[in-house]
Design the sequence.
């Protein structure tokens, strides 16, 4: 394990060696700024930093937007992001990361990772920490695994309040339904905190709206094709009793929307999460009711920016609070009122400046 203290010691040692060499040649003039320069020395030269983003696939528009955000940050600092996808296969994800860590210099590497499920995060963290690579994870981790528990290169875990998001889209759907009627629910990958928390948000909203009936709920694994097929089956089973479709992400919501259109069913309130462009367009057009933006391009860039700032000496991980190391980030409900202004998700490079890295923190992950 390469600690931040070891990195800082190495950087300071390099500065000291350089200063000694200059002194021997008679070129080292003292100045008040020398100490500050040493204290701010980075562990890696910017051009030596390797940036890696990894998601399940690029067929999911949200995950593609994530990697596009990583590209935008990398380009802004004169680097290239390595884009990795593992097709929702945990063994493939682990093997990709092992290969990445075994090539190049992991101590100048930044990993911005979407673990496939909660159980995948522990081996990812341990591999990265042992190699000395800086790591930022998103969405999924076991509740009892935290960056401050001895993992010096695991900078942050970033997620969003799934209960709040699941509840927000449920409330929007119930309102569109006039406060009564039957709904179906499409859950995500069950071994993920996002899927679990979002469904709890729906259940909480149902408890407050006794005139809404949950007709059926099925798992569609955050996948559009699976959601299309499941919704077709549920339409056959429940027919016109379906007045709303709650989906734990936009890809499933769009699959459900296709099934409804194929069945000739109109006026059904459909909601999702992620604010992918196609879903936001559907909200603007009135065929979907609402989605929640978690800003994929921001996620794709922010983790790389954190590691870059740490490696260049502009971020001291040891000085971060627990809240900065595992936090909920800001999310926004997208409905007919604001869909037009959210049609094209793009990265705001100002968000990735070292002084702005934690501006979207809304609270600690508890």
Sequence:
């Amino acid at each position: 394990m390469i600690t931040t203290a070891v990195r800082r010691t190495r950087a300071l040692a390099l500065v000291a060696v350089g200063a000694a060499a200059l002194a021997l040649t008679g070129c080292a003039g003292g100045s008040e700024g020398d100490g500050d320069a040493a204290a701010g020395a980075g562990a890696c030269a910017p051009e030596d930093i390797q940036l890696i983003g990894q998601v399940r696939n690029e067929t999911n528009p949200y995950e593609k937007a994530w990697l596009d955000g990583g590209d935008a940050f990398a380009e802004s600092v004169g680097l290239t992001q390595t884009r990795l996808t593992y097709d929702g296969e945990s063994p493939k994800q682990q093997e990709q990361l092992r290969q990445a860590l075994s090539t190049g210099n992991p101590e100048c590497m930044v990993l911005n990772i979407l673990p496939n499920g909660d159980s995948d995060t522990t081996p990812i963290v341990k591999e990265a920490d042992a190699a000395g690579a800086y790591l930022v994870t998103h969405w999924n981790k076991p509740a009892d695994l935290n960056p401050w528990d001895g993992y010096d290169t695991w900078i942050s875990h970033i997620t969003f309040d799934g209960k709040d998001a699941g509840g927000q889209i449920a409330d929007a759907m119930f309102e569109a339904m006039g406060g009564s009627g039957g709904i179906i629910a499409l859950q995500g990958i069950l071994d993920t905190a996002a899927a679990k928390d979002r469904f709890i948000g729906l259940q909480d909203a149902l408890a407050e709206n006794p005139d809404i009936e949950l007709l059926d709920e099925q798992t569609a694994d955050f996948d559009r094709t699976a959601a299309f097929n499941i919704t077709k089956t549920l339409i056959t089973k429940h027919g016109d009793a379906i007045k709303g479709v709650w989906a734990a992400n936009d890809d499933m919501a769009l699959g459900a929307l296709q099934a409804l259109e194929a069945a000739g069913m109109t006026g059904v309130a459909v909601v999702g999460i992620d604010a992918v462009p196609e879903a936001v367009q559907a909200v603007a057009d009135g065929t979907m009711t609402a989605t929640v933006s978690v800003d994929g391009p921001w996620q794709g860039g922010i983790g790389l920016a954190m590691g870059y700032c740490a490696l260049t000496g502009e971020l001291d991980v040891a000085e971060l609070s627990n809240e900065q190391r595992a936090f909920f980030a800001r999310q926004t409900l997208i409905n007919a009122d604001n869909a037009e202004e959210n049609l094209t998700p793009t990265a705001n490079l100002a968000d990735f400046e070292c002084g702005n890295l934690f501006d979207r923190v809304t609270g600690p992950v508890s």
The chain has two domains: 42-159+296-330+349-364, 162-293. The mean pLDDT is 90.
